[in-house]
Amino acid sequence: MLLRLSTLFVRTLREDPADAEVASHKLLVRAGYIRRAAPGIYTWLPLGLRVLGKVEAVVREEMAAAGAQEVHFPALLPKEPYEATGRWSEYGPNIFRLKDRKGGDYLLAPTHEELFTLLVKDLYSSYKDLPLTLFQIQTKYRDEARPRAGLIRGREFVMKDAYSFDVDDAGLDASYAAQRAAYQRVFDRLGLEYVIVTATSGAMGGSRSEEFLTPTAIGEDTFVRSAGGYAANVEAVTTVAPPALDWSDAPAAHVEDTPDTPTIESLVAHANAHQPRPDREWTAADTLKNVVLALVQPTGERELLVVGLPGDREVDLKRLEAGLAPAEVEAAGEADFAAHPELVKGYIGPGALGPNVPVAEGAERTAVRYLLDPRVVDGTRWITGANEPGRHVFDLVAGRDFTADGTVEAAEVRAGDPAPDGSGPLELARGIEIGHIFQLGRKYAQALGLTVLDQNGKAQVVTMGSYGIGVTRVLAALAEANHDDRGLAWPAHVAPAHVHVVATGKDATVFDAADEIARDLSGRGIEVLYDDRPKVSPGVKFADAELLGVPLVVVVGRGLAEGLVEVRPRAGGDAQQVPVADVVEHVAARVRELLAD
Amino acid sequence: MLLRLSTLFVRTLREDPADAEVASHKLLVRAGYIRRAAPGIYTWLPLGLRVLGKVEAVVREEMAAAGAQEVHFPALLPKEPYEATGRWSEYGPNIFRLKDRKGGDYLLAPTHEELFTLLVKDLYSSYKDLPLTLFQIQTKYRDEARPRAGLIRGREFVMKDAYSFDVDDAGLDASYAAQRAAYQRVFDRLGLEYVIVTATSGAMGGSRSEEFLTPTAIGEDTFVRSAGGYAANVEAVTTVAPPALDWSDAPAAHVEDTPDTPTIESLVAHANAHQPRPDREWTAADTLKNVVLALVQPTGERELLVVGLPGDREVDLKRLEAGLAPAEVEAAGEADFAAHPELVKGYIGPGALGPNVPVAEGAERTAVRYLLDPRVVDGTRWITGANEPGRHVFDLVAGRDFTADGTVEAAEVRAGDPAPDGSGPLELARGIEIGHIFQLGRKYAQALGLTVLDQNGKAQVVTMGSYGIGVTRVLAALAEANHDDRGLAWPAHVAPAHVHVVATGKDATVFDAADEIARDLSGRGIEVLYDDRPKVSPGVKFADAELLGVPLVVVVGRGLAEGLVEVRPRAGGDAQQVPVADVVEHVAARVRELLAD
């Protein structure tokens, strides 16, 4: 393959696009790989399409090696299957919906669980047909509220989605393991660093769930890991609850005047000044903060919820939503407080909350659901609101003085928190989700009636797994991981070409020599990008080569008079002067090395 | 490649799908290549996807060979570019429209002229950048009123669309010729018979326009051809008008009572009975029929139109619409006649019509537009309506007694009509449109401001060509052209595999031998489908092999005891008994032959 820059449909830009914040977005646009068509919707130019094709090829090969068979579903789909599983409403405004000319409801599919399930139901009927894993590489749509970071969170994007079908749990475990191993091979081959983290399954339902994240400071996902090998998405971190405490020696709860202490900070200061603790200072961790939130179901139904958690922790809405999916959570507003005068802002305590909470004599109580952080175990003692302005209750003991409707993982995870598996303290990092594998179980098969007859002729509901790779996002992650200030620096396996030949100056002999080198390399099966532009300065050509990011740059210029050509690795390392007679052999060998890595 | 039927995701069906009318649709579904997801929307199963990939590969290679560069545009696009060219409204209900969560208008693109134009405008600015031809292979959407014939007229389908950009007309001609030649190579390589016909450009605008049709009785498009080499879409056929006649000897027009003659047939019968012609009988060709129609603009604006044509011809609405695009034409209704009492149904004559038409004294006249068939030349004499019930006018001479607002190609084309280029009488045939190439000219570049600076630094509007191949439709056309009663019979270049190995019976030695043959062939780079299903009868296996349509079938069965294996060409020809030791070599040679064709 030989692409000549004089005719290649590409233009590099010196300026970052105004809407770009992350390096992959800036550089992919500047280098002429992609171009924005609408928010979160991109056009692929020739060089970008070449890289995308290479990423797809790696995914396709590893899927085939793992025994998955390729199919292809439409993007435009009727509502009915998604209604049968409840996702038509659960997705809320996050999907694109439309009507056809007859008024039929359609969507642009964000994932295809329903269609794969129905297809297998259509074709298969016996346990002998299973196991089966199908996949597609296909364009998907999500109407993101905030498309961002170029290809990292788009509204039209390419995904590989695979689904496994098994007759029993052991089969699902095996299918899951095969896909998990295939994902590792895909990312290994692409040279993309990744961490496999335990995840929640969100609106998809199901049980075992892991994400492949590539660590990067610009990642949207925070994850945690311990030195002992634990790794999880923050949404999936479970709190290590302390053991319950004996409360037999605890003093009775007592209400104190705490004027002007609507915040944890002001409350702690007041307590230290007026109700000092003999052994140590009060801290925020001694207070029980009760946060009023609103739970919004996909149907639009809205319900208040109070979450009680130690005052030194903030509520992490994403963690809370993961536990309450598919509902979304938002802050309560003035109207909510107006409708619930028993919730005294800044002074809310458990005494006012929930059907299971004992109520002080004469106090108002509310039917708002009350959930506690798992750290609030029986016997823990708290300073918390007394449900009157300027008053708090001290020595309120969980289990003795109050209970709640349950616990919830709502508190933020912090560096230093213990890993749930006892493998040490957690550290926090950021990453981009590039893959997600999870065990759907029987949810979709049950909803859509996918059964097979077992050995005894009895109908068994099939159990499924779902496995996704964000193909366009992987390309962006590769750009994030392989660039510097001057541009992209692709790994050889996904680069749009292996070698970038630059002819500099105006000398016809230089162009003739460069032309011959480019053609000879191409003749050996090496992919060559050849900058043959006649009237472009060497500086511009070098800058373009660095921006475009082809792994080896061959410069044919002044040195030619001495019979020398320069070979520079784009990603770093020394430039070498190579005799022109040897350069094709030399470069071919280096390309072989790069591709063998 | 070796696909085992025991695990391949495919199920053949014995019954035709209820909604299928044409062979390609029936067989592609029955053979497990595609599956309906919604009206006009299909899922691709593994075998179908393999064939589709091969068709795409041929198209992609020939596009590259013709110098076209591949890009990829989104399917989901904002309204604005389509509004700038007027197509947002012109498409009417034929496109899928939707709103995003912010209320922005989007469409699922039916073609991408606007986006290609804007992309080139974004990147290029000089005549030196041209010529340029870009293409994509991409999923497109049209909300067809009547999706039909499976893949032939779908609502989600794959198209290759290419666009050329030139600075002048000579450049456009060269780009057009390059694409035209590439199309010929594509269809030649696919072994698909085609006719290149002159076409109209419809809602696209533009000048030179040709369609590639593959002749088939189930085709939606009627085309004509002459023995002398003329070929055209019926919409593009221009009528050969006879020379004007001298009317000096014509008698004056005279109105006659013709009671109960609202049809041409009844009128001709009456005239022969009561106003006999001395030289011969009157025929329908002597009458001038005036048909009232309504013209509906994409904006919804509706206007009446009367078309005058010889009484022996029907109006062809598709031809008429081609001349009046983007308006659509419908029959006039009772309300239209009620609003225009001067249009006396069954007795309408030119005397009542149009601003240019002389009006008989005292007669009503109308402002309805009046267009004539080109055969109604000056000097021709007609029997036509007298604008009173039961009365007709005789010897009404065109040019002398009436004129109209213009001519229009509204009459049906009939076998035997003269070819417009004088190359003889036309014959009619039916075909499927598999490709369309046309010169858009400057319409899109003008509307969207795509100019480049010429040698003199002056801005020139770019001239464009547009070139489409319906990739999924081509696959269906291949199935139409390559099947028999028993199933599909693919040409080797697009078949999902080259060889279908069938193991029959229950004998383990048969399966072992078949397995070895399948693996050996696969090891030589031959694509093998291997029917290794253990408990399926030979009859079912043979029927499946004929349905699936792989070009060579190798049967390993009873003959093995005598050391023989049978090799059958699927498309016909004798089965051969080949010694098992030679079969791999023999089959490999035959596959090479088939692929060399």
From TrEMBL, chains A, B:
Top-rank taxon, per record: Bacteria
Gene3D superfamilies: Anticodon-binding domain, Bira Bifunctional Protein, Domain 2, YbaK/aminoacyl-tRNA synthetase-associated domain
UniProt keyword terms in alphabetical order: Aminoacyl-tRNA synthetase, ATP-binding, Cytoplasm, Ligase, Nucleotide-binding, Protein biosynthesis
UniProt key word Membrane: no
Pfam family, one: HGTP_anticodon
Gene Ontology biological process terms in this record: prolyl-tRNA aminoacylation
Record has Plastid as a keyword: no
Catalytic activity, as annotated: tRNA(Pro) + L-proline + ATP = L-prolyl-tRNA(Pro) + AMP + diphosphate
GO CC field: cytosol
Enzyme Commission designation: 6.1.1.15
InterPro entries assigned to the protein according to its UniProt record, in alphabetical order: aa-tRNA-synt_IIb (IPR002314), aa-tRNA-synth_II (IPR006195), aa-tRNA-synth_II/BPL/LPL (IPR045864), Anticodon-bd (IPR004154), Anticodon-bd_dom_sf (IPR036621), Pro-tRNA-ligase_IIa (IPR002316), Pro-tRNA-synth_IIa_bac-type (IPR004500), Pro-tRNA-Synthase_IIa_type1 (IPR023717)
Domain Aminoacyl-transfer RNA synthetases class-II family profile: start-end pairs: 35-491
Main location, first listed in the record: cytoplasm
NCBIfam families per record: PRK09194.1, proS_fam_II
Complex and partners: Homodimer.
General function of this protein: Catalyzes the attachment of proline to tRNA(Pro) in a two-step reaction: proline is first activated by ATP to form Pro-AMP and then transferred to the acceptor end of tRNA(Pro). As ProRS can inadvertently accommodate and process non-cognate amino acids such as alanine and cysteine, to avoid such errors it has two additional distinct editing activities against alanine. One activity is designated as 'pretransfer' editing and involves the tRNA(Pro)-independent hydrolysis of activated Ala-AMP.
UniProt family annotation: Belongs to the class-II aminoacyl-tRNA synthetase family. ProS type 1 subfamily.
Notes concerning its domains: Consists of three domains: the N-terminal catalytic domain, the editing domain and the C-terminal anticodon-binding domain.
Protein name per the record: Proline--tRNA ligase
Annotated organism of origin: Cellulomonas algicola
Gene from which the chain derives: proS
